[in-house]
Amino acid sequence: MVIEISFPRGGRKPPATNKSPKIKQDYDLFGGDKRKEKQKNKEKKVPEKEPTVLDPEISAVTADLLSYRSLQDGMVVLGCVREVQKMTLGITLPGRLSGRVMVTHISTPYTQLLHSIVDNTEPEGYKTLRQLFTPGECVPTKVIKIDGSDEKFRIGLSLMPEDINCQLSHKSVTTGMLLWGAISSSEEHGYVVDLGIKNCRAFLQKTNVDDGKEYAIGQLFWCVVQKCDSTAIAATVSLNALTKKIESTKLVKDISLDYLLPGMMVDLTVSKQLMNGLEGKFLNDYTGYIHEGQLPGIMDKFQTYSVEQVVEARVMYVMPVTKLAYLTLRSLEPHDRGTIQDGAIMSCKILGNTKGGLYLQLSKTEKGYVSFRRLKTSVPLNSDLDDKDMVKKNYPKGSKHQCRVLTFDYLDRVYICTLEQDLLQEKVFTLRDLKVGEEVTAVVREIQNKGLLVEIGKVTGFIHNEHLSEVIMTSVTALKSKFHVGQKLKARVWNLNVDSGSLLLTMKTSLLKAEDNLLSYEQAEYNKQFPGVVLQISTHGLLIGFFGKVSGWVPRSLMSIEHVAKPQEVFKLGQVVNCTVIKCNLTAKRLTLSLQPPKATSKRKQVRLGQHVDVTVTKVSHSGLEVTVDDTNVTAIIPLLHISKFPSLVPLLADTYQEGDRLNDLVCINNARGIPILSMRNSHLNEENIPQFDELKVNDLLDCSVQVINDKHILLQTPIHGFKRCLTVPPENFNGHENVKKLDIQRNQSLMARIEEIKRLPLEIIASCKLYDCWNYDLNVSVQLLSDYLSEVQRIKDNFSSLHRPLASLKLGELVTGTVKEQTELGSYVVELSNSVTGFVQAEHTTGELSIGSQVKGIVLWLNFEKDYAEISLNQNVINRINQKQTGSINIPVGQSNGSSNTKAEIVLVNENFVLVALRGTLGKRQLVFLPSRLHINDLTPNLSYYVVGDVVKIEITRCERGVIIGVLKQLIKDLVHIVRSTLPRVRKLSSQGEESQNKRQRVDESTTVHQEVTKQNQQPSKNIVIETDSKKKPKGKAETKLTNSKETKQNDLENGDAKETVSKKKKKTTENEESALQDEDINNKKRKMDSDEESIDEVTQKKIKRESAQLILPGADDFWNISQPVKIEEDSSGDEDNATEIEKARTVARKALSTIEFREEQEKLNVWIAFLNLENRYGTKESFSTVLEEAVQMNDSLSVYLQALNILSDSRKTAEFTELLANVSRKFKQEFQMWTGAAEACYKCELKEQARDLMQRALKSLDEKQHVNLLVQFAFMESRFDESERAEALLEKVLASYPRRVDVWTSYVDMLIKANRIHIARNVLERAAGQQLPARKMKTVFTKYIQFETKYGEKDSVNKVRQMASEYVKTALQ
What we know:
Elements: E1 2-3, E2 27-28, E3 32-33, E4 59-60, E5 76-84, E6 88-93, E7 97-102, H1 108-118, H2 129-132, E8 138-147, E9 154-158, H3 161-164, E10 178-186, E11 190-194, E12 200-205, E13 220-230, E14 235-240, H4 243-248, E15 265-273, E16 277-282, E17 286-291, E18 310-318, E19 325-328, E20 345-353, E21 357-361, E22 367-371, H5 372-376, H6 387-394, E23 400-409, E24 414-418, H7 421-424, E25 439-448, E26 451-456, E27 459-464, H8 476-482, E28 488-497, E29 502-506, H9 509-513, E30 529-538, E31 541-545, E32 551-555, H10 567-570, E33 576-585, E34 590-594, E35 612-621, E36 624-629, E37 635-639, H11 650-654, E38 662-670, E39 677-679, E40 701-709, E41 714-717, E42 727-729, E43 750-759, E44 764-768, H12 771-774, H13 779-802, E45 815-823, E46 829-833, E47 838-841, E48 855-864, E49 869-873, H14 876-881, E50 904-910, E51 914-919, E52 928-932, E53 952-961, E54 964-969, H15 970-982, H16 984-996, H17 1010-1019, H18 1038-1043, H19 1046-1056, H20 1059-1067, H21 1074-1113, H22 1118-1132, H23 1136-1156, H24 1162-1179, H25 1182-1195, H26 1198-1211, ...
Helix pairs in contact: 21-22, 22-23, 22-24, 23-24, 24-25, 24-26, 25-26, 26-27, 26-28, 28-29, 28-30, 29-30, 30-31, 30-32, 32-33, 33-34, 34-35
């Protein structure tokens, strides 16, 4: 308490001080330095300060420390670090006050480091606050802000040397002075130090630093002036930071109080004892006070100090008005807290009372303190006594009580405690009372955008949106509709950090119900399964999070038993998945996981490659069957497409299996990962016929499964001993299809492959999947493939019958009635049959237009179980030609075909799997026969040009079993005979080569002796037609042309100019001399093709002449130059060498264009450069593209060229090159508005949305603030265009919150919403805009827009309502 007896009214006026203005936070980490640079005035000469004259009668009767009322802005006070967080420091001040230091108020060098981090650079020597500061460390602080507006005082502090040393000038720095500095830079022999004193340069030699101590850039430290060379202009200071030097340095000569800094040590002579401390004199008879809590020992008493005793004390602070100093008898060395933890309940003894509360003895060496404010609530009320007397009565000195430790005061070195009963009984008081994975009851305290702020006892925690439920909730509206303040929730402790005070919880149902959760790496045992949350998804794998910051990695190969090409489409962030531990490295804390089922732990032998086993189904999933091998505990997997060779039937076949079903004769095709992979379609494999890698030869045929499909190649897997990799099939080795993705091939689909090349370095097998490389022209293969298909369809029908599905009740040939429901665009009809089955009638099976709702009668042709409808015919002629009883019994011998036998049938149905025909004549009994339309498993695009509904064709019956008749088209047999004859010499040679490796390679039993079969064909066509050919030297005759896919057939027919003639010759009757006629026709076709080729060449030449003429007539017309390049490459190229030549020609044309177009035609030249870049991007290399880009930048507006290049790379999805170029462009043109928007749009096109949003943040820091609104609006439009409506709205809402008077933003916002068809939200935005009080000119624009909107999208009432709002606004404005 200060008593001013006679405050001086006159006398000597104190000299003006060199005070710095009030400090504000000048730096915004996320917005850059927003301070406006002001022109520096020339430094004025400041006279040397003189000591302040004080009234000797000002004194204090107690040694009370600071309070919120006595604390003032600008005071420099000694504090102690209480806690260190990521962005702030908690500081304890004298008087048990607390303040906070922002990360931008540490030091100027440290702030500069932070700015470099924000600018995406990685500075050297950067350390976090937790690396720079430790609790208990003494630091000087300056009060820069005191906020007590809501009765909760908040003190803002600064540690910056320019704030602490603001009273000093370079002339006032003397040898032996204790200062506060920051490391500015590190040199070879020491450090350059920032003292915050103008015209004062300081250096700290490394020899003057404690052994092993290294300072980081921006780090603060105490130092002593070892040497000072001062002039009238500047001072050069040498510093010493040795701990011994700092602790022993003492001020001995007089110094002004204005220069007295916290931490300086002086000799204090005790003059008297006060109620709670000591009073004394130091230096030039300055008065100082020492509080009883600032004695050296915790249990020391100030009564032990006598008058005239001299003690060493350190300055804590000086009161600004009275100039009274408060000191401490403790050192600056960091002090660790005791062993008592926060929240501990223990017995205590009352030591006595002080002005603000009671002192407690917790142990022999530990002291506690309870404030009167907390004591008031724990004593009974008594009207006769005041609060303090009641406290003294209930808590007399020496009495013992139970107390709870709240926290530790590092400056006073006492524990802050409480005696309140409700706090003593609280179970969850600190984070230490909780455990990771523990189930708790949380109470909602606040609903925020990112989740819920909750309380568990006296602890505050947070539940992020992704942990509120199984589905991530991002909308605040959705959160508020489901949760409310005060609601009690069941949750588990997801993660807690006692040091940082953070607590995260989860409410995911899967984690709450889980019996065993992974809480630590030590708990991760091999093959054990735990639930986890997907934290990150990449193309290489998944990052899975568990309780307590335990995380693991799931490689893509272990995501599923099926190949996962795009994990982003299969998994979602926040998804809970069951993970199996594969490997755990406790030292590195690395966890490898699998999403596949746990491996079998049986000690029995694992299933061998090629071994045949019987299994029992244990689980049916969307990815396949999980089975257990009989007589063992081995768990195995049957991938979904290994159930059948036919991908379209697999989903329905999977439904036919249930848990407990027993499956026989399955073969193991892979056991590399410990879990055997079984197949139901490779029964021909066994342990003996699986080949060894060293025994493989070119032309060996292998049965494979598709593993990877991309633009570069297809990877196939097949069991081979000594070769664990996949076979590589280039796109050109796949039936001539350059874009194999269009073929709808699925992973694990069955394909045959023939080896073309075996590489040893690197180890690789190149194979071909072309139809005529893998098929030996044996129609038995085609018939067997069709038979397998029909057998699996029958299995599906049996399953439909067991489920009482009405479609299965129908039979082929059955007469049905129904009602026409719909007509399709192609003229087909949808009919609802009497048993509620959907019928489908193709246009060929109707006799005319049918009216919707009319009753029709038809016959069942086929049951399509895949699409759940019946194929029916309404054509009476077809109905009459099909027997209603399809028994499969005919009087035609199977396989017999002679010259006099004519087995005719009418085609009634054609699809990609089979052709259905109805036999004619009495021998056939009007039975239905199936013909193979797919010749081989590799025949992915069957040629259906042989088959036209309604045509009558000749067939040969090849198989009749289980009521199903299968035949082969005779015309197809004859065409194969022609191929056999034309390739006979080469066949014999290939046959002898193939027989050498036939016994040691894996192959399907497809071939017999070639010479014998060909001999048979010379005599008479038969069902066994076998041939092997060299795919690279196949003849190009008409017969083979018919066997290619339909697209190739049409193209060849058009080229030959004989499409109609080809089709007509399929339909006419075959004579005995037909084969020779075919040969003659083939010669004629070749002649016609040569004529056609000549015409084609003339046509191309004419096009070229026209283009060249146009270029000569109009050399500035860039359209001609641009068109010529792709035309040459796409139209004229016929092979790799020709293509390379044409590309080179295109480059020449581009160069010629650039040299021909006049220099004034800038836009035309730019267009040619863009075309040139497109050419190099599409057909050139990365280096050639870069070279052309550099030239284009030099010859044109560089930014325009760069943006065009970004768009080109974005359109071609070259992400790596795009990212590299984007980094270069964003550095060069960061001040250009167009660059940021153009580059961002290219990012959005390339689906790099996060990179685009990062560009927005960087643009806000680089562009002038005037451009920020337009920038945000542009980014909002881009978000909306690329299906991110919510983000777009959030951006515009943010803009309008800061700039509500920007009418152009309001209207643009509305236009964006209207374009996105969000009419309701657009109306709300307009209503908000119209409710503002803006100038009349702006309001006119708003109301005009509003009326136009309601006129188009609203009603008359809504238009009138807007007009009324406008009228009210005008009336209000006139008033």
